[in-house]
């Protein structure tokens, strides 16, 4: 019977094409608005590295001075000083450790047809690549010896490598950066975790494209390459590059990778002991609580999905409810004109249950059509959003989960909207309808 009622539903759509089109459009607009907003929220709040997000930890420690400090006050910056980063790297705690900061460098392509390029990159250490599961299409990461000797080597992102060298393998070639020759040791494949949780600007996660290149942190320090991003300084600092390295200014991001999530308490004990040891040296005088955050906790702490994003989602679903109310009215109008048809069917022996099933399946057909139209509108809306900036390009895309949700939501919405009109249609009294014919 389902197939029969489904065909009846499809056929009924052609009886009043204007009214049907209006219902489908109303449902499609509501679904598109809610799905577009939900898709962006879904991408922003999703786990960017699910295979190990519970084993990666960002520490939050307060190395600020006592002057002007209120007990319980949160640190001004979520990064750490160069001194602390180097101490953690040498402590050998955990399976891997990665320190990093963003940099901007001028690149001089070997090709004469390309002008000099200012590119965004990351200064980090070897563990970065294995820690964050970065894919390589050519070559590999640099070695621990390169970190120790501050060797001028570079790993290119796939987009910059293709721009400079086309489809060829550039590993082994030299690239001029800030006037120095850096040897290319590897090229990454497409890698755009969303958000870029490993690097944060202030307390807002970065949504953007993959960095163009990666160089050893020690090499960046040797060349005195300044950071691109925020820096927090709460005390007096000596002038010059060495003054920055010796200062308490926070400008380096740091991550630990543990073998298992159960070793979290061991890492917490290490941080507490480290802070106590530094306190004996005249640092960490605030005695603030040292905190650890895994990836998802860190995203929550830094408010990746802010209240404005959540409010937008609620407003979109409110608009969908408004569209459903309008759909209910249109279905009432559509079903009311078919009272005589219902009366004849009831007189021929059709039960209320059969009438109910017929009209509910017809509502589902409308929902399916609305889902297809809503999906098209949603893709259009996301494309328009993506055109606004490179950051929005990363989050404004739909995956298979959202495709499934779109159809389920549209059909469910149509069924819910059709319950009351369908119930009203089932209340038709056959005798009254037959007498009026």
Automatic annotation (TrEMBL):
Bilayer disposition of the protein: Multi-pass membrane protein
Pfam families (UniProt xref): FtsX (PF02687), MacB_PCD (PF12704)
InterPro entries recorded: ABC3_permease_C, MacB_PCD, Macrolide_Exporter_MacB
Ranges where the ABC3 transporter permease C-terminal domain occurs: 315-429
Cellular compartment(s): Cell membrane
TM segment ranges: 311-333, 365-388, 400-420
Main location: membrane
Listed GO MF terms: transmembrane transporter activity
GO cellular component labels: plasma membrane
Domain MacB-like periplasmic core, first and last residues per copy: 20-224
PANTHER family: ABC-TYPE MACROLIDE FAMILY EXPORT SYSTEM PERMEASE COMPONENT 2 (PTHR30572:SF18), MEMBRANE COMPONENT OF TRANSPORTER-RELATED (PTHR30572)
Protein name: Putative ABC transport system permease protein
Protein species of origin: Undibacterium pigrum
High-level lineage: Bacteria, Pseudomonadati, Pseudomonadota, Betaproteobacteria, Burkholderiales
């Amino acid at each position: 019977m389902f197939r029969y009622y489904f065909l009846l539903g499809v056929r009924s759509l052609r009886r009043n094409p204007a009214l049907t089109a209006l219902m489908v459009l109303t449902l499609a607009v509501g679904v598109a608005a809610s799905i577009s907003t939900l898709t962006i929220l879904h991408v922003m709040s999703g786990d960017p590295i699910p295979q190990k997000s519970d084993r990666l930890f960002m520490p939050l420690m307060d190395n600020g001075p006592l002057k002007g400090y209120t007990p319980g006050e949160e640190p001004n910056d979520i990064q750490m000083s160069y001194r602390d980063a180097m101490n953690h790297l040498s402590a050998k705690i955990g399976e891997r450790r990665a320190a990093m900061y963003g940099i901007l460098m001028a690149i001089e392509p070997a090709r004469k047809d390309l002008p000099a390029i200012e590119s965004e990159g990351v200064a980090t250490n070897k563990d970065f690549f294995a820690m964050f599961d970065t894919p390589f299409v050519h070559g590999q990461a640099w070695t621990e010896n390169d970190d120790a000797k501050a060797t001028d080597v570079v790993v290119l992102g796939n987009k910059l490598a293709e721009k400079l060298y086309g489809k060829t393998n550039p590993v082994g070639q030299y690239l001029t950066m800030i006037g120095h020759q850096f040897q290319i040791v590897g090229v990454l494949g497409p890698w755009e975790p969303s958000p870029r949780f490993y690097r944060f600007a202030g307390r807002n996660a970065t949504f953007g494209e993959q960095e163009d290149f990666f160089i050893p942190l020690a090499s960046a320090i040797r060349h005195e390459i300044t950071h691109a991003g925020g820096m927090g300084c709460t005390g007096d600092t000596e002038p010059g590059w060495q003054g920055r390295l010796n200062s308490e200014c926070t400008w380096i991001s740091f991550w630990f990778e543990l073998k298992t999530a159960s070793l979290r308490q061991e890492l917490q004990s290490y941080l507490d002991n480290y802070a106590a040891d530094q306190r004996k040296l005249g640092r960490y005088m605030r005695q603030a609580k040292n905190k650890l955050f895994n990836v998802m906790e860190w995203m929550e702490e830094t408010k990746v999905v802010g209240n404005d994003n959540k409010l937008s989602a609620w407003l979109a679903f409110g608009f969908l409810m408004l569209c459903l109310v309008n759909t209910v009215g249109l279905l009432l109008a559509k079903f009311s004109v078919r009272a005589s048809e219902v009366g004849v069917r009831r007189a021929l022996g059709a039960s209320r249950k059969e009438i109910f099933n017929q009209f509910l399946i017809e509502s589902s057909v409308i929902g399916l059509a609305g889902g297809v139209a809503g999906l098209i509108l949603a893709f259009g809306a996301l494309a328009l959003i993506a055109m606004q900036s490179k950051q929005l390009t990363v989050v404004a895309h739909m995956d298979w989960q959202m495709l499934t949700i779109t159809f389920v939501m549209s059909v469910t919405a149509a069924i819910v909207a059709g319950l009351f009109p369908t119930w009203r249609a089932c209340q038709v009294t056959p005798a009254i309808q037959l007498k009026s014919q």
